[in-house]
Design brief:
The structure holds two protein chains of two kinds.
Chain A lengths: L1 H18 L2 H28 L3 E2 L2 E2 H16 L4 H12 L2 H5 L5 H31 L9 H27 L8 H14 L11 H9 L1 H4 L11 H33 L6
Antiparallel strand pairs in A: 1-2
Chain B lengths: L1 H19 L2 H29 L7 H21 L6 H7 L3 H4 L5 H6 L5 H20 L4 H27 L7 H16 L8 H10 L7 H9 L2 H26 L13
Helix pairs in contact in B: 2-3, 2-7, 3-7, 3-8, 3-11, 8-11, 8-12, 11-12
Classes of the chains: A mainly alpha, B mainly alpha.
Amino acid sequence: MKEIRLANKIIKTLIKDRIQYPGRLFADTSSLVARCGVLLLLYSYVFKLNNGVVNGATFDVVAWSMFFYFSFSVLGLSSISRRIMNDVTSGHVEVFLSKPIVYLSYRAWWAIGTGIYPFLVVTPLGALALALTVGIPQTMTTTLFISTFVAAFIGAIALTLLVYSILGLFAFWIEDASPVFWVVDKAVMILGGSYLPIALFPDFMYKVALYSPFGASVFVTHTAYESWASVWYKLIGIQLFWILVLGTVTYLMFSKAVKKVSVNGG
Amino acid sequence: MKEELHFALYAIKKNIQSSAELRTSFLMNVFGMAINNVAFIVLWVFFVQSVGVIGGWTAADIVGLQGFTALCYGLSLTFSGGIKRLPDYVANGSFDRFMLSPKNILVRVATSAFGASGVGDIVFGVTCLVIYGVLIHASIAQALLIVLLVALSTVLFFAVVVVIYSVSFLFTDATYIVNGIFELFLTPSLFHGGAFQGAIRGFFMFIVPALLVGTIPVEIVKDLSMEKLAIVGAFTVIWSVLAIKIFNRAVRRYESSNFMTFGG
């Protein structure tokens, strides 16, 4: 109950804060337009050159899949990593650890609270623009899609937070964990189907995307494809597996990390 | 001019020395960034494998594109990393110290910070361009063109960055706005150049000059196109003049916002 109250308070406060800064919303929107918008224009040209079909996928399905990736990235959950790193390097982490809160869940709610406002504004607008320009593929009009999409989305949030929390916790052992962050972030970007849609993945890369936590953390991109109807339970199962594994790793790392903190006063 | 250049080189030297003190962190940043950049090559090479050659662009051209863009980014923002801190300087009032300096403000701001990870971009960029040269069996003329285009594109890249970051003086909370505009400029410069056609190609050449950094230089080297070289040269001059003018005008809008602090 206390945890829910804390989460509620953090999210409400951060939404109010974000509303006060329209510039940040502009940044999120232009980031989505720069990446997703330009990519979609390029892919529409590529699909036109290939008579509308590449590797058995049509443009509308690929467009929605890529949109899901970029829309999910607007949530900015990867920021949890930077915040943990900053807390550790600045020494602020000792203040959080002395409070009656669970530090990692506090940071997780903070990450969700920071991104939820731009996500709720930018995603519907982007989805509407996409629906009007490329239409809604048949695969996204089924009841199965809606229910499983929500499950994959929630799984993606949990897994992303775990992957990036682990990266943040590296700051307890490494002087500057940013390079590790870059490499993992790019792995998520490639295997998530951002710049290169899943439909264009070579076979071995598709397998890596399927069975690694990096690809699994953005399984929402798979939901637009026709194959989703037959593999959704397998993919959500993989997501759950990684949530359990990485949840345990995060718990163990955090327990060890807390023992490393030495309060020097100041 | 000579004095400013001397000062800039001195500041860069001190920044490098300071950054290299944290050796492990420095090396991790360099190699981390180089590995990070490989991701784009992997992506676009798979793209070429899946959809075939588009607009005459092969996998080798992708290597060249990433080389040009990474090298321009690295050369511009490693040694002149301070320009990316401009929104913070303006927001927290620390821009005052640049105003009070007898040196050129733009040079002072630009050389006020060093981006260690940018060295990784430079290493990656040079490696890519060497590989690109080998892959296309570059002639001496093409090799010289690559060197010339790196110089031109770096100046152009830096000029555009100065224009973008000058926006910091126009808004209270400029960090996010400036980063958003920068993203709009940088992201298309990393995309497969052959897929930019028609109006979108014109937009990203003449309005947002993202393609002039990597895509067009690759096409110049490939086709030995003097026409495109002239366009890059002309736009480098135009954007450089614009950058200096816009930066100087923007600085006039700066209002000191010192923080009052008490105690030790």
